[in-house]
Each structure stands twice: as C-alpha cells, then as structure tokens.
Design a protein that fits this description.
Layout lengths: L20 E5 L5 E6 H10 L3 E6 L6 E5 L1 H18 L5 E6 L5 H16 L3 E7 L8 H14 L4 E10 L2 E8 L1
C-alpha cells in the first residue's frame, strides 16, 4: 500500500502515522532499524517525546523520536531566516528627455548603474512634449545609447516601445 503525503501542514505525528512498519531513529540520532509503528510509538512515549514521520515516501517510512513542539519551532525559525534573506526585486524608474544634456545624461547613467548593482530592474521612460513627437528618432537614439552603455551589466527585458507620448524600455540585471 503506497503512502500518501500528509494532508495538513507538516509531517504526521504519533497516531497519525498510518504505516505498519517504520524505520526508527531515536532522539540521539541513532538508527534503531525497522519495527512496527506501535513499538516505535511506545518507545517515543517512554522517553516523553513524539514520533515524527520524517520521510513519508520511503519504504518503510522513516520516523524519528523528537519533541514536536521544538521541531515546529525550528521549522518556523528556518522559514523566517529564509524570508529575511530574500531579495525583493523592485522596478526603479528613470525619466529622460529626447534632448537630454550630456551632464544630466551622465547623472542618470550613474543612478541606473547603482540600481542595477543593487539587483533592481530599471524602467527607462523617455517623455515627448509638444512637437518632439515629430522627432521620435532622437528618443530612439537616446535609448539606444543607454542600452549600448549598459550592455555588459544588463539584459533588455522589454525593447523600447511607444506608449502615448512616451517611450519605455525595461532593463534587468544579468
């Protein structure tokens, strides 16, 4: 009879273990071998601990004598640590104009490089005003210049595209 995975969160404990035979590991980490689940449960209760199913898909399932409350606490601690280390990728926006001055351009490039180094994506928005719409080629040149200068550090996630009066390009760190 194949084992089914636990239905609730986490492994099965004590009477929830359905297998007839289990491979038992005691509280000190010693392998005690294969025995009936009833004997394993009795041994766990003798030392005042719980029988915890560690590997339900093994044949026979592996169970360990441990304190379930302590086990749950350790799992929670590991989950919190993992959550703490997780980096949320943000999208930072840089706005430029088609006739941007060289110094302004360099300042924006430095800012973009710092965002990319932090692991964030950068959305470059190029805004056209008034008659600038007639000279979209100037905007494309600015975005191409940005893309060429950032080429070794980024991959272009979305190529420059026109939306209403602005061109948008998204860069992501490699």
């Amino acid at each position: 009879m194949p084992n089914t995975l636990p239905t609730r969160d986490g492994p099965r404990v004590n009477e929830e273990i359905r297998a007839a035979q289990v491979r038992l590991i005691d509280q000190d980490g010693e392998m005690l071998g294969v025995m009936s689940a009833r004997d394993a449960l009795a041994r766990a209760y003798d030392v005042g601990m719980d029988l915890l199913e560690i590997s339900p898909n093994a044949e026979p399932p592996v169970c360990k004598i441990t304190d379930f409350g302590k086990f749950k606490y350790e799992q929670q601690k590991k989950a919190n640590e993992a959550r703490k280390r997780q980096k949320v990728v943000e999208i930072k926006e840089i706005k430029v104009r088609p006739n941007i001055d060289d110094h302004d351009y360099e300042v924006k490039m430095r800012q973009m490089k710092s965002f990319i180094e932090e692991g964030d994506k950068v959305k470059v928005t190029l805004r056209f005003r008034g008659r600038e719409m007639a000279h979209q080629d100037l905007g494309v040149k600015v975005l191409e210049r940005i893309r060429n200068e950032m080429a070794e550090a980024v991959k272009v996630e979305s190529m420059p595209r026109l939306e209403n009066r602005q061109m948008i390009m998204v860069l992501a760190p490699k």
